[in-house]
Write a sequence for this structure.
């Protein structure tokens, strides 16, 4: 049998595992063809979209990185400076290209908004660094990603987290 | 001294201007009344530009969400709604804040899966039904159609108000006039939601205007299939072979005539009412006349005027007592219904209002027990409560609606 402190420790570890998972569950997930592009290399960013019929995604690129095209319909894309906005209309995948600078690193950040559900949140940031070399470059964008804490957590994950807390509290009290 | 009340009322009217007053679809750039795919996409980008990318634009989050809603639910077109009073109203945006003056329309909204958070005020009778409308206990109470709290109606800033269409028309007309005069942006819709002849059409209309078409169609199909099975009971049976039914209202020796809703349900279930020919809606009958007609089935109504059972309480003994009292009436031992043990008690909760199809299913089952052996009104009732009303109510242990 595990001791009470050991049980508590397990519960806390479980909680720490569950809560971040809850916070990262969004309708939009980003993947990059590479996180360490070569100087001037064009790489692909893919946005997987699930359960969002009508909405939008705004992506913000790090300084020096440039939007280089997309397969998304032209009349549903808006590029302004370091930002690219995509109108989502029953799309499940949007891909776009980014040209890396000679040097520089930073995060690609994003914001999604589901117009029908009336919800919004942040896409988990993706780090890029030319040649894998970190620099002092920083992400730009005026009103970009929402704080990750605003992302909607799925009910199950929240319930699981609460259950873990309750179990931890209950075990702690029975001495 | 009179300045402040007038000022307060003027302020209230200004504040009460509803969101949906604008008569165009947001994002309809060319104003032709159709939000095309291209226009919607343009609107979405214009919104993104102003909201996230530092550009200029005047589409608010509410605008783009309404545009998306209209594009999805109404194919990008305004919706022309013809209510049960025959009046046509055009909607350009979804309804976000509904006030209901009738429990029937409130119940129908719940049946079709409407977000009840968007019902911002209800009539006092619905407000008082803690068991049946638990989610409305914290919703604003705007009184009744006979004594409406108009100030509260305006305070909750509705974009739509539901009133009866064909009953209490004078008071409902008056409420409608007062609302439209004080806040022209409020859409008033007239629906009954309790009449078999018009209910399925009302379900579909309300579902369409609230974006609940899929769920509304499921409920309409459930309702229609139940009504079809009810009609099967008497199908092909000549009128002179249909069971004679004495339907007694809440009060002793008071029955229902041709223009009463309960008579319509009796006939829908395949019964023949020997007293249907009176001019009064609820005529008092001579006790001797009942014996002369020798009803084959007797149905006694309980409910508001004879307050036992229903959703409020599980009291089978009370219904048994009422039934026993009828069996002991002078001369009744000789009538067919008593001799054949076909005297039943039914609660108005399931025979009037939006649940009329459940009570009518019981009537049909009582009138044609052999032909409708497979019809299970109890199961229909439970499915209605669980699947369409979404309330935790177990008919096996809660409420009393029929006996035996």
């Amino acid at each position: 049998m595990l001791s009470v402190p050991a049980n508590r420790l397990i519960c806390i570890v479980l909680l720490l595992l569950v809560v971040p998972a809850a916070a990262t569950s969004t309708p939009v997930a980003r993947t990059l063809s590479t996180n360490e592009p070569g100087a001037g290399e064009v790489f692909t960013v893919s946005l997987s979209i699930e359960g969002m019929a009508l909405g939008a995604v705004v992506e913000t690129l790090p300084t020096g990185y440039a939007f280089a095209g997309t397969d998304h319909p032209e009349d549903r894309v808006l590029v302004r400076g370091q930002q690219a906005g995509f109108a989502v209309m029953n799309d499940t995948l949007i891909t776009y290209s980014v040209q890396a600078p000679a040097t520089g690193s930073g995060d690609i950040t994003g914001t999604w908004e589901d117009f029908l559900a009336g919800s919004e949140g942040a896409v988990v940031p993706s780090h890029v660094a030319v040649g894998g070399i970190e620099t002092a470059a920083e992400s730009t964008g005026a009103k970009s990603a929402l704080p990750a804490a605003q992302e909607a957590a799925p009910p199950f994950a929240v319930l699981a987290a609460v259950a873990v807390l309750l179990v931890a509290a209950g075990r702690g009290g029975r001495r | 001294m009179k300045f402040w009340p007038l000022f307060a009322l003027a302020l209230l009217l200004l504040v009460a201007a509803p969101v949906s007053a604008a008569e165009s679809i947001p994002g309809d750039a060319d104003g032709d009344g159709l939000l095309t795919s291209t226009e919607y996409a343009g609107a979405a980008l214009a919104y993104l530009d102003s909201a996230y990318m530092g550009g200029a634009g005047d589409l608010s989050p509410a605008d783009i969400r309404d545009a998306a809603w209209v594009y999805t639910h109404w194919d990008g077109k305004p919706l022309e709604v013809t209510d049960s009073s025959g009046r046509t109203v055009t909607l350009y945006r979804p309804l976000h804040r509904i006030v209901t003056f009738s429990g029937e329309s409130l119940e129908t909204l719940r049946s079709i899966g409407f977000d009840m958070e968007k019902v911002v005020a209800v009539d006092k009778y619905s407000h008082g039904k803690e068991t049946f409308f638990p989610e409305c206990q914290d919703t604003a109470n705007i009184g009744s159609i006979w004594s409406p709290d108009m100030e509260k109606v305006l305070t909750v800033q509705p974009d739509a108000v539901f009133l009866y269409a064909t009953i209490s028309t004078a008071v409902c007309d008056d409420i409608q006039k007062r609302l439209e005069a004080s806040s022209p942006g409020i859409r008033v819709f007239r629906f009954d939601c309790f009449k078999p002849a018009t209910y399925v059409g009302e379900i579909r209309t309300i579902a369409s205007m609230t974006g609940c078409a899929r769920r509304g169609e499921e409920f309409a199909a459930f309702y229609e299939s139940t009504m079809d099975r009810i009609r099967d009971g008497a199908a092909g049976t000549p009128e002179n072979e249909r069971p004679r039914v004495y339907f007694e209202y809440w009060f002793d020796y008071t029955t229902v005539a041709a223009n009463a809703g309960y008579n319509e349900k009796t006939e829908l279930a395949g019964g023949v009412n020997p007293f249907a020919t009176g001019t009064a809606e609820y005529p008092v009958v001579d006790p001797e006349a009942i014996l002369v007609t020798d009803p084959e089935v007797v149905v006694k109504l309980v409910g508001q005027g004879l307050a036992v059972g229903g959703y409020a309480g599980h009291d089978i003994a009370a219904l048994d007592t009422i039934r026993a009292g009828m069996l002991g009436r002078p001369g009744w031992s000789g009538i067919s219904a008593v001799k054949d043990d076909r005297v039943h008690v039914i609660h108005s909760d399931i025979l009037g209002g939006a649940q009329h199809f459940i009570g009518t299913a019981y009537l049909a089952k009582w009138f044609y027990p052999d032909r409708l052996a497979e019809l299970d009104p109890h199961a229909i009732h439970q499915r209605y409560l669980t699947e369409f009303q979404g309330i935790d109510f177990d008919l096996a242990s809660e409420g009393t609606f029929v006996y035996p």
